[in-house]
Here is the input.
Amino acid sequence: MKSSLDLVIVSPGNNRVIYQDLAREYAAVEPPVWAGLLATFARKKGYQVAIIDQEAQGLEPEIIAEQCIEYKPKLVAVVVYGQQPSASTQNMTMAASICSEIKKLDPELKTLMLGGHPSALPERTLNESESDFVCQGEGPMTLEGLLQVENLEDESLYSKVPGLWYRAGGFPTFTHPSPVIAQNDLAEVLPGVAWDLLPMDVYRAHNWHCFDHIDQREPYAALYTSLGCPFRCSFCCINAPFGKPALRCWDPDFVITELDLLATKYQVKNIKIVDEMFVLNPGHVMRLCDLIIERGYDFNFWAYARVDTVKDHFLEKLKKAGFNWLCLGIESGSKHVRDGVDKGRFQEEDIYTIVKKIQEAGIYVLGNFILGLPDENFASMQATLDMSVELNCEWANFYCGMAYPGSQLYNDALEKEWVLPAQWHDFSQHSFEMLPLPSQHVPAEEIIAFRDMAWQMYFKNPRYVDSLRDKFGQAVVDHLTALTEITLPRKYAKPPGTPPRVIAA
Here is the structure.
């Protein structure tokens, strides 16, 4: 029998449903960063903690419930985040199943659900799940408040817990908002990830992230150097736990201590910077790069940037520090469509110029594109595909426009009564029953089919395949060939009225 703990943190995930056949080899297996941050926070407060990472350990909800009960904790916290900023929602189905299984085995064991989706829809989350509590906000203060409650059966003691939703007499009740952690307090409140509580030997990087060493995708780690984002893209839900657009950065002198640990204790080379917008604050980025360069580490980083935040003075130092990949949110080949989702006012020529500059600096580019945004028509979707082919980034993601809870698009969808996926896991871009938003001119079913066809066209384009062979060798081309043989079954896909076509660049 395991010894009693104060807290068990569960990170839910179901790759087999969310990614279908891509989960077997091609999708990454990422460490649950927020679960690790909250574990360190709780341990620093003196609490005994364990983490169960469902995705990494491949556990069914029934087994997770049994393990939680064996620990005899005061509280189980189910932390609902995902590998992408918008991926919290797709893990909600599994999160609810875990809470349900815990209740079946031990009705008295209390559960708290927190994360991006629960924070965006706290009352609905409470109503739809068997979780006893839901956190609205970042989580640390709510978690500490509950752990400090002497008797969790006594509802009268909940009022002092910030950011807490609970049932009072069967009705959803909210205490009061939880304060956001001040930037200067980040290293004190969230002093790193509890790496020692995670199964570090099972995490695996994205395939493209390791094109320079495709057979060395492990070990792998992910960490934040900042929280939040100052921008207001209408399709993004990243700021749901934080209340408003803003950026808070850990001091680089603290971040480097996390990197020291990953390099020396865990021999990690492949690292994802989870920040929604890493390449933004010059002082933060340049100082961290300097610290990495001083230590002579051989990291292989990837990080997010925007077309309008990548400046010339960043590039040389980013590359020298090991930032081999930058992920750009290009979104659309149509300026009209980009403007319609508040993406930014950069021009088409800016996109080509920035991508070229990044590549000339020796950094690979992952281009993110979205098909089916509100103003989209077949011509603008084709323009996006044309742009992607001409840019010929080393990797590209093609997404469909989705109304993620916490985004303005979700509010618009509710107001306009657009049809949304029936289950939370079908907000995944790769699931069988994924159903994106329709645009003003194209039905949702045709957007799915256009997206899937465009993906195949991009990755089978001879110009792209040849460039991959030239840069990374035949082994990567063989890997890609096997990947493109996988076609995702889609329940709602319908051949588009105007199918995509590849125009030779």
Summary: The mean pLDDT is 92. The two ends are 64 Å apart (CA to CA). The chain has 19 helices and 15 strands.
